[in-house]
DNA sequence: TGAAATGTTGGGGCG
DNA sequence: ACGCCCCAACATTTC
């Protein structure tokens, strides 16, 4: 047998800037594989939208590998054992994941195969800085974003430069590989039509989106990123999650341009992603456990009807419904609107942030354990460097501010499209004749609001005082 | 990466 | 001319 290495792809579905792949390609031949780990607990297994993304991500990676990606479903250690034996493999490479389950699983795998005499190496394929390299002087983790980013990340030094795509073609495909289709990642019911129109899942598309963003969005990013209808955001988050592009590629693509405050703002958003991973690494329970323990005693409401109305975009508050429908239709939601629907769920509806975390996990194509968990903790006020609980967004004021001419709301809540701007964001205050001439009948064509914004705000503040 | 309540200031109307 | 009130327009505080 010739010198064969295994390249185990996970959340790094790309050829460029992939250090594990580069090491694998130093061998005579490479067996590139993906394993759908069906032993993970339900709450960390990919949600529906992520599976959809993964399906096309694997197809595209397979193309890049000349059709030689081998795909398996099972317990990774078992799959790897049988491959190592079958091909007499002497080396195994992957890029790291940072959630507790993957960390434990991977370290067991590493220990096992090192014991078998293999070379086993893991690399950083996802982050600008490894979480354990960004700590305070005494080695404890940062709790606040600004010092984490301004001091911690700077002190950790410049991120490594992106590595080139390996010039290599000696791929081996296992004859027992599944087809990507066999993983059953696509939805049975055809809810993915709009998603298909919206997203092309490939490494090339990620690069082209980055180029477009630098061309058309970046120079307005600082202000424009807050306006959901404006298109000044990069839309790179799902590509970053599955690694169709790396954070380092994005970082250096903008850092190599003439300095500009828009670039600083954009980079600090990458910084928030790093911060989330740092929090997850040092708080393995981030997905479930409040960082601020006093929130364990918060009096959350339990109300299935309200939760369903929120999920379906039928709360009767237009900007909230627009956001939730964008999520459902596209697998994505603009960041500003994510804050609004999050605030609405945990503060106005006072439903537990876990419900939001679960729904986003299932619906977002960019669902990411670190970012999703950290962001829900942030908006709920129970996070490390959280939005204070009493900071409650007013969805009406916010839509007037950031969707002033109603383009975003009209796009996703078309039944209100004919309302004048004055009442578009608060149809419950519109006079009868205005509703009539816009063909809106509250309670029929569009719901009455399921909460009173003023009262629910006050109730949230009162409950907060209790803890 | 808020909003509402409360406080302060200053110009203009008016007796 | 003067004091008084009203009320934007800010500023500060509070949640």
In short:
The chain is of the alpha/beta class and 467 residues long.
Characterize the largest beta sheet: strand count, sense, and whether it forms a barrel.
Answer: 5 strands, parallel
State the helical fraction. 40-55%
Give the termini distance in whole angstroms. 66 Å
Mean pLDDT, rounded to whole units? 96
Proportion in β-strands: 5-15%
Helix- and strand-based class? alpha/beta
Task: Report low-confidence residues grouped into runs of 5 or more.
Answer: none
Q: Trace the largest sheet across and list its strands.
A: 3-2-1-4-5
- The total strand number stands at 5
What are the secondary-structure elements, in order, as H or E? EHEHEHEHEHHHHHHHHHHHHHHHHH
Number of helices: 21
Oligomeric state of this protein:
single chain
Based on Cα principal axes, name the global outline. Answer: globular
Radius of gyration computed on alpha carbons = 23 Å
List its salient traits.
single chain; 467 residues; 47% helix; DNA-binding; alpha/beta; 21 helices; five-stranded parallel β-sheet
Provide the fold topology.
Blueprint (H helix, E strand, L loop, with lengths): L3 E6 L9 H6 L4 E9 L10 H17 L5 E5 L1 H12 L3 E5 L4 H16 L3 E5 L21 H11 L37 H6 L4 H15 L3 H4 L12 H6 L4 H9 L5 H22 L21 H9 L5 H13 L4 H14 L4 H11 L5 H12 L14 H8 L4 H6 L8 H4 L7 H6 L15 H14 L1
Parallel strand pairs: 1-2, 1-4, 2-3, 4-5
Helix pairs in contact: 5-11, 11-16, 13-14, 15-16
This protein binds a DNA duplex (15 and 15 nucleotides) through α14 and α21.
């Amino acid at each position: 047998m010739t010198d064969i290495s295994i390249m185990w792809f996970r959340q790094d579905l790309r050829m460029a800037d992939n250090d594990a792949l580069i090491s694998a390609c130093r061998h005579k031949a490479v067996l590139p594989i993906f394993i759908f780990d069906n032993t993970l607990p339900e709450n960390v297994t990919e949600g529906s939208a992520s599976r959809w993304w993964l399906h096309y991500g694997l197809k595209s990676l397979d193309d890049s590998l000349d059709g030689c990606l081998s795909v398996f479903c099972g317990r990774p250690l078992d799959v790897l054992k049988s491959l190592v034996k079958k091909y007499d493999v002497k080396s195994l490479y992957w890029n790291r994941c940072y959630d507790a389950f993957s960390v434990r699983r991977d370290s067991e795998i590493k220990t096992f195969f090192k014991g078998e005499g293999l070379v086993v190496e893991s690399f950083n394929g996802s982050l600008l800085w490894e979480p354990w390299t960004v700590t305070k002087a005494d080695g404890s983790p940062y709790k606040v974003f600004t010092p984490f980013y301004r001091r911690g990340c700077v002190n950790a030094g410049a991120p490594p430069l992106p590595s080139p795509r390996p010039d290599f073609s000696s791929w081996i495909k296992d004859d027992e590989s599944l087809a990507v289709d066999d993983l059953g990642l696509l939805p049975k019911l055809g809810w993915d039509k709009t998603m298909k129109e919206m997203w092309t899942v490939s490494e090339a598309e990620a690069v082209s989106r980055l180029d477009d963003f630098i061309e058309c969005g970046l120079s307005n990013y600082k202000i424009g990123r807050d306006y959901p209808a404006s298109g000044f955001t990069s839309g790179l988050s799902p590509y970053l999650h599955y690694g169709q592009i790396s954070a380092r590629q994005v970082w250096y693509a903008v850092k190599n341009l003439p300095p500009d405050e828009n670039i600083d703002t954009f980079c600090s958003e990458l910084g928030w992603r790093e911060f989330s991973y740092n929090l997850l690494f040092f708080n393995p329970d981030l997905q479930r456990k409040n960082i601020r323990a006093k929130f364990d005693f918060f009096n959350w409401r339990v109300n299935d009807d309200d939760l369903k109305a929120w999920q379906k975009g039928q709360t009767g508050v237009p900007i909230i419904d627009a956001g939730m429908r964008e999520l459902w239709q596209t697998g994505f939601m603009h960041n500003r609107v994510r804050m609004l629907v999050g605030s609405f769920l945990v503060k106005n509806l006072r439903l537990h942030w876990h419900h939001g975390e679960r729904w986003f996990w299932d619906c977002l194509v960019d669902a990411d354990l670190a970012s999703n968990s950290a962001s829900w903790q942030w908006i709920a006020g129970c996070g490390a460097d959280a939005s204070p609980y009493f900071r409650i967004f007013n969805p009406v004021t916010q839509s007037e501010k950031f969707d002033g001419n109603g383009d975003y709301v009209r796009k996703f809540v078309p039944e209100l499209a004919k309302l004048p701007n004055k009442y578009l964001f608060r149809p419950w205050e519109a006079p009868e004749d205005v509703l009539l001439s816009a063909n809106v009948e509250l309670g029929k064509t569009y719901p009455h609001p399921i909460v009173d914004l003023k009262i629910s705000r006050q109730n949230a503040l009162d409950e907060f005082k209790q803890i």
